[in-house]
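>> Question from a student workshop board

For tomorrow's exercise we were told to take the sequence and the ligand below, predict the bound structure, and bring the output to class. My setup keeps failing. Could a helper post the expected result so I can at least see what it should look like? The ligand is pyridoxal-5'-phosphate.
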Amino acid sequence: MTVRVWDYLPEYADEREDLLDAVDTVFSSGRLVFGPAVEAFEAEFAAWHGLPHATGVDNGTNAIVLGLRALGVGPGDEVITVSNTAAPTVVAIDQIGAVPVFVDVRADDQLMDTDLLEAAVTSRTRAIVPVHLYGQCVDMAAVQAVASRHGLRVLEDCAQAHAARHHGRLAGTMGDAAAFSFYPTKILGAYGDGGAVVTAEPDVDADLRRLRYYGMAQQYYVVQTPGHNARLDAVQAEILRRKLRRLDDYVAARRAIAGRYAEGLGDVDGLTLPPVTPGNEHSYYLYVARHPEREELLEGLRAHGIELTVSYRWPVHTMSGFAHLGLGPGSLPVTERLAGEILSLPMYSSLDKGTQDDVVAAVRTVLGAP
Ligand SMILES: *Cc1c(COP(=O)(O)O)cnc(C)c1O
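>> Workshop helper replied:
Here is what the output should look like for this input. Compare the format with yours to find the bug.
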């Protein structure tokens, strides 16, 4: 048997009846596009965050594309973000013709180094996209300080941070808008693709609703600004409604798993476990440890049937598709160094204790810990 970083089948076994009922509810409703499931999920997701608006979209990448567009970002504008992220953060910026500008990350928690923001701002900067990586939040007070000094918009990339908190506030409630992904591996995952943008601003939300629907106001069927087809699927919306009710449980399970890793591996020489930065409540989308001999560790674990992954092995600025940005090796030294040391241990809410114990034992054996 192979142990993987993520699996949904144990969850499906537990929730199968509810999920199949969700599918049947939509199929029987007579509304396959938009309709009551999408509306209800949007209302419930907004309320869960204590916000007035959530717009469902087809995936997290388009949540960033449309979120930025609704915040007024367009071609030629510079958007400051990090290279230590899932490529879609940057692909989305590129998609609207904006220019991604990277700041390096902090060595300890691997999050945006907000001390570098000020120097990255130019006359063309329009927005900042802080990425709440792995399930913990960027220092948002520092982001907001720079944003308000320069009149910039802030779109939180919350694809990995459902239910994370920062000084008591939920991820997604601290920027001008926030983009979520419901890709199956995410903390709140659909059984397919999905995404949402939340905001407190009614105008931004109204723009989002048009942008995801070709650019049309639904009641008039007239395109104002040409948009996208980026609707959240009704079946996924109904599944997400069911799962949203269990989100607190999923996160509690993830935190318990993180606690068990810390207990089982905290004393292993050379292995650095993910820190929780003061003020943050981590929601553990990924459990990213570090080791200087990462490749040997991965290889050794593979021999024990444990297939781990690296998120992310290639910082976005080093990818050939972004060569035109002209950022050679050495331009983001902390990001580049971390990419060579990080590895993700299995993390999903239905990961059972036995499997987790096997992982702990194998890591200890491979690293020669008593
Ligand atoms: C998953 C992810 C996205 C993209 O979401 P999709 O639903 O896969 O399009 C964007 N940003 C980050 C940080 C992600 O982890």
